[in-house]
Amino acid sequence: MTAALGRRARRRWAFLILGGALAMPYWILVDTVARLFVAPRGPAGEIVLSFADLGAALPLIAVTAVFPVVGTLEASAARTLLGVPLESSPESRMRTALWSVLHLGLGLLVAGATLALPPAVVALLVRPIVPAWSGRVAWFPAWLAPLLGAVLAVAAVAGVGGAGRLLARSAPPLLGPSAADRLAALEARNVRLAERNRLARELHDSVGHALSVVTLQAGAAGRVLDADPAFARLALGAIEDAARGALAELDHVLGLLREDGASPSPPPDLRDLHRLVEAARAAGASVEVRADIDALPAVVSREAYRIVQEGLTNALKHAADAPVTVLVEQAHGSLTVTVANPLGVGHRTGHRPGRRPGAPTGGHGLKGIRERAELLGGTAESGVREGCWRLAARIPLP
Amino acid sequence: MSAAKPVAEMTAAAVTVLLADDEPLVRSGLAAILGAEPDLEVVGEAGTGAEAVSLCRSSAPDVVLMDVRMPALDGIQATRRIVDAPDPPRVVVLTTFENDDYVYDALQAGACGFLLKRARPAEIVQAVRLAAVGDTLMFPAAIRDLALRHRAPGSASGPASLSARLTDREREVLALMASGLSNGEIARSLTLGTETVKTHVGNVLAKLGARDRTQAVVLAYQSGFVRP
Question: What pTM, to 2 d.p., does this model score?
Answer without folding.
Answer: 0.52
